[in-house]
C-alpha cells in the first residue's frame, strides 16, 4: 500500500472517531444540572426592597396625654406621618438625668414601640445632635416628648425599662413647638379618638374607646418559587437531595442543612458546627444584611422582638399588625443566629397582589375588651393589646386567596391570641354584686 493511501485511510478513521465522540457528548446527560444553568446564590432574589433600621423600627402607638386624658389618631397612618415629622426634629443637649419620682402630669406625647431596644438604635431613626451610643445596657420600649409651655420648648425623655436611668434632650425649634401645641389644642376634633389605660399591666397599654369599624380584605397573591429559595439557602444548589413528603410539600437536604417548603411558607435549619468567634454586628444588623441580600422584605415587615440570638419581623397591613399563628406562620420572618452564622430561618413565601373583595366589620366595643382583660387571671402578664388583621388562606374554584380580617388581639408570653369574650356570669357579679 502506498504511503499516501495509508495516510488518507488514517485521516478518515480519525475524522469518524471525532464525529462519534462529538455525537456522544451532545447526547450525554449529566447526573446533575450544570452549575452554569442554575441561578447562583448571588443571583437568587425574592423581589423585595432593601430595608434599613428606620424602616423596620417603627412605633405601634402614639398617645397624646393631657390633664389625665389620653388621645390618639383614629387612623394609624396619621400616627406614622406624625412620627415621620418627629424624626426630623433635632435633639440637642443630650445628657443623663436623675429620674423624677413624682413628676407632675402635663401635656406630653408617648411614642410606644413593640419591643424594648438599645437606646443606641435611636441614633438611626431620630435626628440627634450627639450620639446616644455611650449609654450601654440602656433599653427602652418608648420615649416621651414633653411640652414645656413656660420655656416654649420640647423636652425628650428616654427612661430605661428597669426605671434606673434617664436620658434627656431638648428640641429648641419654635416651629416644632408650635406644631405640637396646635395638636394638643385639636385633640377633641374628628381625626382623634380617646384612649383608655390598662392599669394592671407591667407596661402602659392604651385601648381605643368605643367601637371601631374596619375593612376586611381578600387578596390575590404571588408565591415565591421554591427553586429561588433553594438557591439562596444552599451554597451549591446542584448537590441537594430533594424529596416530597406530602402533596405540595418539598424537602431539600444536605448533610448540614434542611429546607422544608409547605403551605406557602418555609422552615430552614443549619446544624453545621459553628464559629465560636464573636461578631461585631448586632443581631438586628446581621439579619437586615442577610434578608436584604436576597430581597427578603417582600412586604411591610417591622421589628417584633429580638434576643441575643433570635429576631422576628412582623407583617403589617395599612399600619396594623398581621397575625397568622399557623404551623408555617405566614405573618412572621424569624431568624436565629449563632455568632455570624444563620442557623434558623422561617418565613412566608407569599406577597399580596390585588384586592378582589372588601367588607366592613364592626369590632367589639372597647368596654367589652377591657372587661375580658380584667377577668384574666394573668392580666399582669399581658404585654400588649392591639387591633390586628388575622391572615388565613381561602380557596374557591378560581384558586387560593389571602383573607385579612380585623379583630382584637392580646399578647401574652410573646404570643398573640384573640381577646376572648368576657365571662357574662362573672361580669354580672362584678357589676351587680351578689
UniProtKB/TrEMBL annotation:
What keywords does the record list, in alphabetical order?
Membrane, Transmembrane, Transmembrane helix
Which Gene3D superfamilies does its entry note? YycH protein, domain 2
Q: May I ask which residue range the UniProt record assigns to the signal sequence? A: none
InterPro entries in alphabetical order:
YycH (IPR009996), YycH/YycI_2 (IPR042274)
- Regulatory protein YycH domain boundaries: 4-420
Name the residues that span the membrane: 9-28
Q: Name it.
A: YycH family regulatory protein
Amino acid at each position: 500500500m502506498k504511503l499516501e493511501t495509508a495516510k488518507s485511510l488514517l485521516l478518515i478513521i480519525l475524522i469518524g472517531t471525532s464525529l462519534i465522540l462529538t455525537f456522544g457528548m451532545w447526547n450525554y446527560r449529566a447526573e446533575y444540572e450544570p452549575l452554569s444553568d442554575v441561578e447562583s446564590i448571588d443571583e437568587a432574589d425574592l423581589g423585595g426592597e432593601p430595608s434599613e433600621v428606620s424602616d423596620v423600627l417603627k412605633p405601634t402607638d402614639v398617645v397624646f396625654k393631657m390633664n389625665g386624658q389620653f388621645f390618639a389618631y383614629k387612623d394609624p397612618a396619621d400616627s406614622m406621618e406624625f412620627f415621620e415629622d418627629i424624626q426630623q426634629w433635632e435633639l440637642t443637649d443630650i445628657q443623663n438625668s436623675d429620674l423624677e419620682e413624682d413628676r407632675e402630669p402635663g401635656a406630653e406625647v408617648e411614642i410606644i414601640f413593640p419591643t424594648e431596644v438599645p437606646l443606641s438604635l435611636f441614633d438611626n431613626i431620630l435626628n440627634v445632635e450627639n450620639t446616644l451610643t455611650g449609654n450601654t445596657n440602656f433599653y427602652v420600649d418608648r420615649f416621651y416628648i414633653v411640652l414645656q409651655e413656660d420655656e416654649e420648648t420640647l423636652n425628650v425623655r428616654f427612661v430605661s425599662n428597669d426605671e434606673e436611668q434617664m436620658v434627656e434632650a431638648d428640641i429648641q425649634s419654635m416651629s416644632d413647638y408650635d406644631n405640637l401645641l396646635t395638636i394638643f389644642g385639636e385633640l377633641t376634633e374628628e381625626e382623634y379618638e380617646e384612649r383608655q389605660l390598662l392599669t394592671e399591666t407591667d407596661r402602659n397599654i392604651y385601648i381605643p374607646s368605643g367601637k371601631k369599624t374596619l375593612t376586611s380584605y381578600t387578596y390575590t397573591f404571588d408565591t415565591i418559587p421554591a427553586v429561588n429559595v433553594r438557591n439562596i439557602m444552599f451554597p451549591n444548589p446542584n448537590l441537594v437531595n430533594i424529596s416530597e413528603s406530602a402533596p405540595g410539600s418539598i424537602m431539600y437536604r444536605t448533610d448540614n442543612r434542611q429546607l422544608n417548603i409547605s403551605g406557602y411558607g418555609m422552615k430552614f435549619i443549619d446544624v453545621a458546627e459553628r464559629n465560636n468567634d464573636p461578631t461585631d454586628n448586632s443581631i438586628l444588623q446581621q439579619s437586615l444584611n442577610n434578608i436584604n441580600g436576597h430581597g427578603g422584605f417582600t412586604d411591610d415587615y417591622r421589628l417584633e422582638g429580638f434576643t441575643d440570638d433570635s429576631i422576628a419581623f412582623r407583617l403589617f397591613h395599612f399600619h396594623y399588625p398581621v397575625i397568622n399563628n399557623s404551623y408555617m406562620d405566614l405573618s412572621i420572618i424569624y431568624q436565629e443566629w449563632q455568632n455570624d452564622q444563620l442557623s434558623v430561618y422561617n418565613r412566608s413565601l407569599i406577597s399580596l397582589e390585588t384586592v378582589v373583595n372588601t367588607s366592613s366589620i364592626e369590632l367589639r366595643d372597647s368596654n367589652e375588651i377591657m372587661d375580658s382583660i380584667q377577668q384574666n387571671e394573668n392580666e399582669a402578664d399581658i404585654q400588649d393589646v392591639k387591633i390586628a388583621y388575622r391572615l388565613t388562606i381561602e380557596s374557591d374554584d378560581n384558586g387560593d386567596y389571602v383573607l385579612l380580617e380585623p379583630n382584637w388581639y392580646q399578647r401574652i408570653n410573646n404570643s398573640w391570641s384573640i381577646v376572648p369574650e368576657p365571662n357574662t356570669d362573672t361580669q354580672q357579679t362584678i357589676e351587680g354584686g351578689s
